Amino acid sequence: MSRTLNGIVAVCPDMGIGRKGHLPWHPKKLRKELKYFQKMTMTTTVQGRENVVIMGRKTWFSIPESNRPLPDRINIVLSRNLRYPPAGAHYSASDFGSALHLLDTSELAGKVDQVWIIGGSCLYKELMESSHHQRLFVTRVLQQFHCDMFMPTISLDKYQLLPEFPGVPQGMQEEEGIQYQIEVYERRSNANHGI
């Protein structure tokens, strides 16, 4: 089945997305930005269906245990090593392709609405290299923090920046003395695959 895949991420100016299993600005919390993440990944377009969040194993374990699984979403965790979903996760898959195939099984096909890829680095890279129609919801944090995990650069040859998108705050935001703005990119239909 053809579907739009949504990537959602917060990045530093150097495209850094994490440090030592935490968001780069840890221990500060961008609460409004987290509420936006929750709203976007939970809001469905089809009544009676649920959105899916797909994440790597390290991303899963970076979520505080009290918040796992992410509520009101079908949580799929990718791992080449886990034979079963980690405690609390709904499903596991060995790789990105297997996770997408899982969505079309008889068990999930009638339940799934939107698909959100929420990290980490390798998964964002796979998403951006895939041939699926995709949107990237990127929170651009305007302050540099030290990072050890990074997202690929978003090429404007392959993606177009949308002027606005329903539910996405516009303009400069600020929390905890950290400024950010949220951008939405859509894959150009004529883009070559690969980064």
UniProtKB/TrEMBL annotation:
Superkingdom of the source species: Eukaryota
The entry's keywords: NADP, One-carbon metabolism, Oxidoreductase
GO biological process, any: folic acid metabolic process
Residue span(s) of domain DHFR: 4-187
Pfam families associated with the record: DHFR_1
Family as reported in the entry's similarity comment: Belongs to the dihydrofolate reductase family.
Protein name, UniProt field: dihydrofolate reductase
Organism: Scleropages formosus (Asian bonytongue)
Gene that this sequence comes from: dhfr
